[in-house]
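Appendix B: complex inputs.
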Amino acid sequence: MNLDSLNALDREGFAAALEPVFENAPWVAQETWASRPFATVADLHAALFAVVQARPDAKKIGFLQGHPDLGGAAARARAMTASSIHEQGGLGLAALDDAGFARFETLNAAYRDRFGFPFITCVARHTRGSILAEFVRRSAQDRAAELEAALHEVFLITRLRLVALVDGPGAPHTTGKLSTHVLDTSIGRPAAGVAVTLFEMDGAEGRALVATVTDGDGRTTEPLLTGVPLRIGTYELHFAVAPYFAGRAVADPAFLDVVKLRFSIAEPEGDYHVPLLVAPWGYTTYRGS
Amino acid sequence: MNLDSLNALDREGFAAALEPVFENAPWVAQETWASRPFATVADLHAALFAVVQARPDAKKIGFLQGHPDLGGAAARARAMTASSIHEQGGLGLAALDDAGFARFETLNAAYRDRFGFPFITCVARHTRGSILAEFVRRSAQDRAAELEAALHEVFLITRLRLVALVDGPGAPHTTGKLSTHVLDTSIGRPAAGVAVTLFEMDGAEGRALVATVTDGDGRTTEPLLTGVPLRIGTYELHFAVAPYFAGRAVADPAFLDVVKLRFSIAEPEGDYHVPLLVAPWGYTTYRGS
Amino acid sequence: MNLDSLNALDREGFAAALEPVFENAPWVAQETWASRPFATVADLHAALFAVVQARPDAKKIGFLQGHPDLGGAAARARAMTASSIHEQGGLGLAALDDAGFARFETLNAAYRDRFGFPFITCVARHTRGSILAEFVRRSAQDRAAELEAALHEVFLITRLRLVALVDGPGAPHTTGKLSTHVLDTSIGRPAAGVAVTLFEMDGAEGRALVATVTDGDGRTTEPLLTGVPLRIGTYELHFAVAPYFAGRAVADPAFLDVVKLRFSIAEPEGDYHVPLLVAPWGYTTYRGS
Amino acid sequence: MNLDSLNALDREGFAAALEPVFENAPWVAQETWASRPFATVADLHAALFAVVQARPDAKKIGFLQGHPDLGGAAARARAMTASSIHEQGGLGLAALDDAGFARFETLNAAYRDRFGFPFITCVARHTRGSILAEFVRRSAQDRAAELEAALHEVFLITRLRLVALVDGPGAPHTTGKLSTHVLDTSIGRPAAGVAVTLFEMDGAEGRALVATVTDGDGRTTEPLLTGVPLRIGTYELHFAVAPYFAGRAVADPAFLDVVKLRFSIAEPEGDYHVPLLVAPWGYTTYRGS
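Resulting structure:
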């Protein structure tokens, strides 16, 4: 859908078009309609969210209560069908084993008891581990702080939905980028042909997200992650440098076989460049830009 | 036992004293006796081995045939009792699962068929993975090269046994050292209180060998490994830097939680210094000395 | 001038248009004319040079003899007026003191005695020091090798002239790039506002070529050098990091005040990226890309 | 002189023996005598200084007034003879040119006008540049802070004198150490035979303090500086790496010819280890320990 055509709709059409953004709360779009036209997608999102923010706390809480339980049995059952549940579930949560699911249900029940609304988080910005950490951290906050935190998550969720739904100028920045680069400091040239694998870590376990090989410029053809929010969590980049250095006079076995760079991402909309400067007997890494 | 008192023994006493060094081959010590006295332990070992080397190939092969099968069923049964088997077995081989053991038995049978003597290697200088790699590499050699390789392993095994048995000047260098050091380049000081764990890797699996904490000089109180040959193989050093950097303005989660340095050791008698130069957002490592 | 219009000229017009490229040798362009039209500037240059290469050695030498002496008194007098001399002189040679000039004259006389033609080099690709080093190295070659070397310099000189003179597709790559980047590994962000000065070194003396300041991305607005061949020689990059780190808890005086990266450029048409990864107490640099 | 024999002296002998420590103030040692015996040299120094500190401010100022002017004309004339002047002068101040000396005299006169006593600093802990910086900084303090600062310098001066004069247990730590180490990360071994020069910098000018060559362990036979306080100031270490890397396939000229590490020392009694981790196309340095 195009921002111009959205601006041209009547009130009912406008609300219907935006229904997937603020689910179960058509009044948000209805009230926003009066402020048309919007010059940018970001302006439209700000106007929509301002309608929510203008409500008194009791109304905000009612609004939050309209959201599905994350980790609840109902969510579980519906995980594969409803898109909003899908957003809240992600691959990480869908893959929870029974014990993990029980943990979520317990946390969720305690949270709802304490605050009177379900735990809401923008799952697309998280790994399973960071959701759990958030759950624990936010469960310990006082109610005012947590109400604000929950609304901020609604802000993030609806922003992603709106950007996916509406084309137009001034789209808010909702994606991050992770890239790498391998430089051979023993020959002063990019290291070409190095196999690189990116893992999302869950404790000691890793799930391979990307497996690629460096090109002649020591980079990967595509960034490792791009066009999506980077999920908050811990990652490892594995570089198979032993085959790359093979043939130069090195030890057997080579001092470096697989270089593992382990790092965490904290900013889903950030630019993370994690290069490897490597010689046969040493290396350097850092967060670059 | 002391080198001086060994030098003073008669032929039978001398051979008896050195019996554990060249097992099942008392003639080695008996012939060496004539060359007494030995000024250093290294001289004694050189003289013992020279007796073996002076034999024609047929005799050398007979000598090798007197060694136990590595990985054979008999070795397995006797692993806990006979010291020479223990040396040949080590912890790594003892822990082989059935499939692994079957693999060794197959390799061993093929090796014996090809060369007419059992596979001999100085197990104290190896991890399980490097024994397997050696087995495969040496099985493909021609007979002359392999005879030389097997005798060199006898040289290494008996050298370790002799050094353990006889005190005296001029002991050959049979041990290596692995050490580390953590330096915080954001404050120009050693990083104290960083938990460090050393793992011996077997594929993706790691077995923790040492768990320690850096002292005020960023070092560990004792070297990570010392006084023994370093087993050829792959290792990982894990440094828990997130708690160390906690409290400084960093991201949540911190960019670096556990730094994993993965490296291989190729020289059992070498000095490996593997330091970590670390700032909150980057690090450098290398083989130092 | 445009390649298309050049292709459309008659023989005399073509030769006149290209006169500045092969000075004192109008026959080069005249003979090349028959091969029109040229699809790319690189094709045109290859065709021009092929005419020279097709000559027998005696003619090639005559052609070289038509070039001015580098460092000769005549060149000195004309340094400010004639463009070809200017190319051969550059700022570095113009600034030679009397002793330096005498050195050049001596080398030049010896060279001409030995080879029978003047020393020719593409000065735009050199600093004063590298010309001298070239002079010494090439003076020691045998005549056949040196004839080839001198013609290769004519190739380089005329390629630069042609690219400056003729617009069109397929221009040969005649320029390099030098860039830098400052990354603060203690905060994981580009270091903004760091004063950077690039010096061309002549022994211990440096001549400042560029003085700039890093922007919010830790880079300089423009590459340090671009759009020209990089002169072979030694350079220093000075980064005033003390003001950048001021205000963080560091020593007085700060461990690092000015970081000096000294490096040499060997490929005038290369891409040199020389970054600084810096924390208050340490840094890393390397040739990147 | 030995601490035991000093402890055994009578009051006059004790004061005479310590006369060179607190010049022109025999009462300091005379009053300290009553607290004999001293178990350590540090205890003795603490007791001596406590006598000064116990005086009211007016007396302390009188005590300071007994010290010679730093940079005054009298000091200049006597620089070569009187040991206390020599301490205050050092090589750096002796080498001042006329303009530099005039600057010091102006600062000194202004300082004396403001505070009523001469500027005192422990010159052995300073380079010329750091004395000047201290002079400017301290001249701007209020009188109470500066009185304390001047007495602290007396503490440092007399501590050095006492350590030089009296042998005995528990000598205070008055010296620092500067060392280096060159590690070749392209071969995983110490870089042997690298020429290293240490310069003390004064602006852009450097004075070579040490010229040496790395040994087989990549270190220098002796620390670069040891057994003396390290003078606060800026230094450069130059490593001639091009000859070291010559013969490996590198560019001509080599990317790295002389690596210059520039750093400042702020703690005269500190341990500064400034290593170079170098490959043909990049390097790392840091303050180690």
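Chain B touches chain C at residues 183-189, 249-251, 255, 277, 279-282, 284 (CB under 8 Å).
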